[in-house]
Amino acid sequence: MRPILFRLFIIATLFTACSSEKNTFTNRVFHNTTSRYNAVFYSQQILDEIEDAIEKDHREDYSQVLPIFFPIDSGLIDQNADKLKDIREFASKAIEWHKISKWVDDSYFFLGMADYYEAKFDDASNTFRYLNVNSKKKRVRHKSLIQLMRQFTDLNNYDDAAYVIDYLSKETGINKENRYHLYKNLAYYYDKRGDVNGKIGALDRALELTKDKKEKSRINFILAQLYQREGLDNLAYSYYNESLKGNPPYERSFFAQLFAQQVAELNKSRDVKRVRDYYDNLYKDSKNLDLRDVILYEKALFELKMDDVEEAENLLIRAAKEEGRNPLQKGYIYQKLAEISYEIKKDFRSTKYYLDSALANIRPTDVIYAEVNEKKGIFDSYVIHFETISKNDSLIRLAQMSPEEQGLVAEMFIKQEEQRLIREAEEKAMPKSTGIFDNLLAFGGRGSGESFYFDNSVAMQQGSIDFYRNWGSRPLDDNWRRNVQGFQADRGTTTSDSEDVSDMDQSQLENENPLLGQIPDIESLLAQIPKTEKEINALKLGLEESYFELGKLLFFDFKEPEISIEYLESLITTYPNSNKKAEAYYILFLANEEINGNANLYAQRLNREFPESPFTYSVNNPDAVKGNQAFLESSRKYKEAYEQYYAGNYSDSRNLIRSTLESYPLTKNTDRLLLLDIMVSGKIDDQDRYKSRLENYIQTTENPELVKMARNMLLALTGEKGQDLDQTETISKEETVEEEKVEEIEEEIKSEEDSPYRENPDQTHIFVISLSADKAKESKNLLADLETFHMQNFASARLRTGNMNLNREEVIFIVSPFSNAEKALSYRDKFMNDFNSNSLEPSDKENCFLISIGNFQELNRRKNLNEYRQFYRSVYQ
């Protein structure tokens, strides 16, 4: 009986211990044990798994200083939603079932961490604040405050983060683990604030407090990078060597050794051959097979320091062809090639294509994206106008030749294309280093140097060209000669009754024989040559515009006044009646001033040929007020002049307009003032002058609304169908006076001055869909719907889609890139009218917006959508 009674006693004791109401010793032992080794243990284990997944998902960019914390990707958090749900269940049960346990506060902390990772910041903040006030355990209180500090730093809420830092600095009894996390978060705070010294100091303290070898290695590497950028090479070398301890990943170990050698010897060594040998040995090492692009890139940087630009460029081109681990490295390679082309070789066309290649390998969230995009817009414009000049000029010259001469030029071009293809085949067939098996095959008649036809790429290319020259486009069919009876003697093309070939889809032919897409035929080349005077004039108009736009671009954006002068001189020489002549003179005046040329010549021409032009006023009044103050004053004067005009005081209105243009010659109001002056001309000048001024204004003004108004005025004058003049003037007054109230202008100027965003219509733009975090989780098909929409409407635009957390409360879906604001606006209109998705409501579509890449980087730093929307409404809507 005794064993049975003993067992019953144990069961009864355990049964009574399960109660969470009785605070007895037995109860406390049971609940503490159960809570710790079930809820808390499993919650911590799952949290560690999520943080490990975040670390593995992150791709380190060793060209930049490594981040303190691994970035949190919303997509990864969505994938781990079930694990976060498990943490909530474990923690909630521990709180509910084990109320008298000493691990309740830890369970609350896990609930706060689950909210933090799911971007529920208000809930997370409330939980951490609650623990700080109510927890009796310093360990938990301090841990909660440190996590609250990180959350504030994430959200750029630096004042609150600083308050927490100050509060913790006065706390005592912070254990070693929490002190480590405190200093690591402090480094993160200083990093976000751009305080390098504070970041270094905090990381040094964190390094002293951790025993985790893996963590020590990474912190040492970050410190080495920081010291290297500060020019403290000795310290950097020491920390790079320290980062090699603790069995770091091979890639970090590789970069630590590479950068350590750079700061210690490579950058300072006079033994150039030894440095080059060092890179060559790294390249040959089989362990570095996936890092060869990095090695060639670093060697290219060294050659640039040695002023061997040609060798550096060759190395970068080789690096671009290497397979690598990190696509972003290709972005750095192409970016460096673009820099060489632009800054050293002044080859703007190559720069554009290198920047295109760089963008193909980087994402909008990458550090270098903004810089590359900012440059790309002006190079896109350059190439468009440069190629327009090259093409149109050639076509116009060809149009002046006889048909026989045109045919000879076309044949010569085709021969050059054939020779180019053969040269490319020869380059591909360049002998590579052969191994023993290649040599054995060579002795057997199948080596790389054998003349066997299908092993000889040059012979195959030559054969394809000869076949195409003799027989033309042929599908890969058996007995093709029997199917086609007629051939042209010169190119071997089929006669019109040859249905087998003529009905075949051309793209299918080109897929079967890629040569067809590379060698044009004479007919297609001759068809491009303009035949009529109308076609030639259209080409000349394109030339005129491109000469002007290139001259303008080269002066203002590329800072190349001498090249700008060449294009603008060509414009005014070739097209003396160009409607851009006044502005061309003005830019020539500025460019000659910059190079100490004959600027006065163009000032005289402006005064002689365009005495009433705002550009003339600007030249004559170099000390005129500019910027927002000029805009404000000219707006006030414009309002006064319009009131004088509307009251019938036309002479007073004109005098006020002219004095305003002289005092503030080039502002956003200039086009409005000029149109008002033309309206005055319609009242007091003869009709011919009025008509001439309207026609010239329509040709030279870029504002579409003002051009539309001027067209209506011209239609009213000529008697054609359109609005009459009085109606136009009434509309103009009602709309303009309403828009140009001085108070509103002052408000706009204040807003512009306060706003961190700037109007950049020529920059690359992004289209953004903003959703709440909860709504984004439900919108799983949105990206797929966007891809379908793009395939149907923008198949050739190569648009890319993606999503990211703007902050913990908002997720943005991105469509990019658009080369300028105009194309982005066109996309927005199409999107608003035609895009349908179950993931978006009409109100969500209304909240979509456009943003230039420069402003996107600013938005990504500030995380304040409402602030940007105010700017967006004033600029884009």
From TrEMBL:
InterPro entries: TPR-like_helical_dom_sf. This is Gliding motility protein. It comes from Shivajiella indica.
